[in-house]
Amino acid sequence: MAEKKEATNQKQETYVAGSGIEYKFQHPGVLNWVRKRSQLIDVETKKMDQEQLLHYVHDNVIVDPKVDFGYWDENLEDFEEVTNEAQRFLRGVKKK
Question: Which domain of life is it from (predicted)?
Answer without folding.
Answer: Bacteria
